[in-house]
Amino acid sequence: MIEDLLRHCLPGSWVERLDFSTLERLNASHVSEAMQLREGDLVWRLRRKGSGALVYVLIELQSEVQRFMALRFQVYEGLFYQQLLKQGKVAARGRLPLAIPIVFYNGEDRWRAPQELAELIEVSEGAETLSVPRFRYWLVDGRSAESLADRGNLVALLFRLERSRGREEMFEVLEDLAQALPKMSEGGLRRAFLVWLDRVYFPGRPEIGIPPSVGLEEFQSMLADRIQEWRQEDFERGKLEGRREGQAETILRLLERRFGPLDVATRARVRSGDAERILVWTERLLSAQRLDDVFAP
User: Would you say 104 and 61 are in contact if contact means Cβ atoms under 8 Å apart?
Assistant: First the structure.
C-alpha cells in the first residue's frame, strides 16, 4: 500500500530509485513526545538503491481541510529531525536524511489549503529578496482517485471503494481489487482488506458478514449472489412503490371530483401516505360528507 502511495504521489522517475523491499513502519518511540503523535500519523522508512541512504516518509491522514497544514507539517518534520539527532541517528558532520511529507486526504470538501509554506507568509513590498521558508508537502486527494488510470493501484482502489455510492459500482471496484491484491504470498494484506470491508465498509450488515475462513475471491462470489438478491428486492420494492403512487393519484382525482380543487398540503399528504392509509382514505371517501371526514383520525 505504501509503495503504491509513493508511486502515485512522487513525481518523475525518482521513485524508481527507492528499494521498496526495505520498507518498514516505525513506532511512536521514533517520534518526539512533543509531537503528540496521533493514530492517523504514520512514519515509514526505506533505503535508496545503490547508496543505501535512508529515506523517511511522514504521512498525515486528514478528513478535514486544514489551511495551515504546511506550517503544521513543517513543525512536525522539524521535531522529527530533532528526534533523529537526539537518538544519534545522524552523524555529527553528516546531513539529515530525506523526509517526504505526504497528506493523505479523504474528506468531502475540496482541498484548498496551500501546499507551499511560502503561500501562507505575507511578504512586504521590497522584502522579496529576504529569505522566505521553503517547505512543501505532497497531497494525495481521495476526491481525485478516478484520475489514477492504473486499475491495479491499491491506494486508488481503496479510495474508489470508500466513495462508491451504488452496489454495482462497489462490486466493480471489488472485482478490480481481487485482481490487484497479491496472492497468497501476501496474505496479510488481503486479510486486512477483508477485515476493513467487514468492520468499516459493511458495519451492522450481518447479511454481508465475512467469515474468517473466506478469501477475497470467495467473498466476491458471495457478494455477487447478494447483489442479485438486492436487484430482485429493488425490483419488487419498485413495483410496490409504483402501485402506491398510482393509488395516490387515483384518490386525488376522486377527492377533487367530490370536493373541488385541493390545496397543496392535502395533495402532499395523500402522496406521502403509505398503501394502507390510502386504502382507508379511499373507503371513507364513499361515505364522507366533507373533506375532513376522509382524513379524520
Answer: yes
Asked whether residue 16 falls in the same domain as residue 139, the answer is: yes
CA 113: distance to chain centroid?
A: 19
278 found inside a domain: yes
Which tens digit of pLDDT belongs to each residue from 4-41?
888 876 777 888 889 999 999 886 544 545 555 544 46
111 with 245, same domain: the answer is no
Q: What is the pLDDT of residues 233-261, one digit of tens each?
A: 767 777 778 888 888 888 898 888 888 88
pLDDT digits (tens, 9 = 90+) for 32-77: 455 555 444 688 999 999 888 899 999 888 888 999 999 988 988 8
**Cβ neighbours of 174 (radius 10 Å):** 22
Angle 260-264-266 (CA atoms, 0-180°, nearest 5)?
A: 70
Q: Give the structural domain span for 46.
A: 1-121+131-144
Neighbour-count burial of 183, counting CB atoms closer than 10 A to its CB (0-12 exposed, 13-18 middle, 19+ buried)? exposed
Do 135 and 249 have their domain in common?
Answer: no
